[in-house]
Amino acid sequence: MARWTRETHLFGSVLPRFERLYPHYRQSAPCAKCTELFRKFPYAFLFCSRMISERIYETKFYCTELAKEEGIDHVQLAAPQGCESKARQFFDGLLGWTEIPKPDKLQKRGGVWFQCGAHQVHVGVQEDFVPAAKAHPAFHVRNLDELRRHLLLHDQAVIDDEARADEGAKRFYVNDPFGNRLEFLEWR
Question: Which CATH class is domain 74-187?
Answer without folding.
Answer: alpha beta
